Q: What sequence folds into this?
């Protein structure tokens, strides 16, 4: 099988490695890819949002399947357009991808089908939203409806923060049209767990659980980021909780999407908060998480492509989805100043002398044989171990060997 992988982050590097491990995959090409991916596969300069360009590439290179990994191309219907052109594409179609692309869609779905989530109201008017916030009071959470590069969620601890979030989204229009509607929701307390699942709309098979670290600095301080590190499995996600989640969240969500006429096929990500009232959904994503993929995929022991194909053909029930009995941790190395402002173009050294860790490249480009920083999140260093402590300490050993100017990483991944 020859596969075209769409995307350019650490998640895509992890997907690439897993695809190449499959006995069924003879070749993978990437677009646009990154410096690290270019070492393993031919990369083409076609943007992840360029549907026409991607179709031409898939046809010209005669690929058997396209794997659409990021949220944005899924949300604009890249899978639909590929299928219409006769190209097999893995990932949810545009209607199904709404589960991530519209928070209002996701919240209304959960309300209609009794899937546990935070109580909420939707607003299209800033004044009404503010009146509601003053009535309920902080802590309270304000979310822009549409995709906002992971920055559209404000966890407001005071009324003033909540009111200014409404101004930023609806009056200053910081996220453009994505902020035309907002969700104002109840603040939930408890540990957060990410649960990624394969689903073909008939069966849903969870992967190993994981925990992300969204804030930029140690002790969960600083601004929200795309994710500064993760580990798997989560010790908070017990067998008993898994059973409740399966019965009250996983299957109900799959059936709800079917009933709404938008069956979901692909990877469905459940962002959960384990409250004292039971597990509740805080978000859905229509794809692998980043950096969760960088700890979940290395632990997958079954053949990745076999699962992908089974999802595509709607026979996931028969596919083997098993994970190693081990732990994995990833530490994200970012450019100093991320997520606010940072410089690019610094040389990265020390990537060759790592034996106990895998380095997933994200914001990296390869120029004249040198790796240069090229984004906010630059690298993810993943290691495995028999215990979480072992995985974390090996990952930090790897981080210690890698050098680039102004590198920033959290020192407390997995320590909560
Ligand atoms: P999201 O972009 O939806 O993943 O949200 C970003 C982060 O905001 C989440 O990872 C949570 O830590 C936090 N968050 C979102 N919704 C809530 C909520 N209802 N209560 C408490 N924290 C939340
Ligand atoms: N790590 C969270 C996400 O991928 O959205």
A:
């Amino acid at each position: 099988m020859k596969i075209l992988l769409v995307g350019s982050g650490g998640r895509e590097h992890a997907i690439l490695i897993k695809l190449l491990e499959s006995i069924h995959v003879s070749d993978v090409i990437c677009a646009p890819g990154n410096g690290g991916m270019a070492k393993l596969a031919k990369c083409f300069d076609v943007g992840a949002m360029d549907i026409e360009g991607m179709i031409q590439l898939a046809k010209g290179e005669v690929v058997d399947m396209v794997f659409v990994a990021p949220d944005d191309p899924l949300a604009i219907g890249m899978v639909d357009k590929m299928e219409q052109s006769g190209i097999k594409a893995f990932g949810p179609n545009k209607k199904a991808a709404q589960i991530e692309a519209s928070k209002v869609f996701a919240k209304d779905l959960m309300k209609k089908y009794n899937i546990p989530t935070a109580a909420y109201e939707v607003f299209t008017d800033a004044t009404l939203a503010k009146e509601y916030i003053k009535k309920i009071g902080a802590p309270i959470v304000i979310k822009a409806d549409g995709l906002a590069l992971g920055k559209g969620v404000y966890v407001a601890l005071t009324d003033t923060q909540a009111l200014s979030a409404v101004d930023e989204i609806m009056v200053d229009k910081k996220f453009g049209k994505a902020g035309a509607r907002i969700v104002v929701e109840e603040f939930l307390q408890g540990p957060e767990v990410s649960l990624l699942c394969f689903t073909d709309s008939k069966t849903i098979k969870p992967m190993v659980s994981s925990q992300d670290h969204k804030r930029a600095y140690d002790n969960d301080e600083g601004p929200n980021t795309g994710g500064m590190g993760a580990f798997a499995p989560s010790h908070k996600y017990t067998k008993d909780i898994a059973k409740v989640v399966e019965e009250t969240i996983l299957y109900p969500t799959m059936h709800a999407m079917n009933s709404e006429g938008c069956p979901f096929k692909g990877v469905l990500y459940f962002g959960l908060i384990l409250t004292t009232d039971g597990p509740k959904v805080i978000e859905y994503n229509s794809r692998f998480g980043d950096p969760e993929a960088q700890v979940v995929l290395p632990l997958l022991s079954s053949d990745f492509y076999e699962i992908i194909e089974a999802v595509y053909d709607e026979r996931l029930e028969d596919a083997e989805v098993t994970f190693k009995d081990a732990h994995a941790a990833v530490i994200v190395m970012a450019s100093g100043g991320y997520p606010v402002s940072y410089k690019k173009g610094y040389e990265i050294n020390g990537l060759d002398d790592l034996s106990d860790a895998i380095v997933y490249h994200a914001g990296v480009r390869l120029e004249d044989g040198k790796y240069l920083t090229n984004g906010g999140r630059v690298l993810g260093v993943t290691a495995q171990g028999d215990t979480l402590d072992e995985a974390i300490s090996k990952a930090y050993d790897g981080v210690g060997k890698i050098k680039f100017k102004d590198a920033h990483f959290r020192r407390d991944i997995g320590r909560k």
In short: The chain has a mean pLDDT of 96.
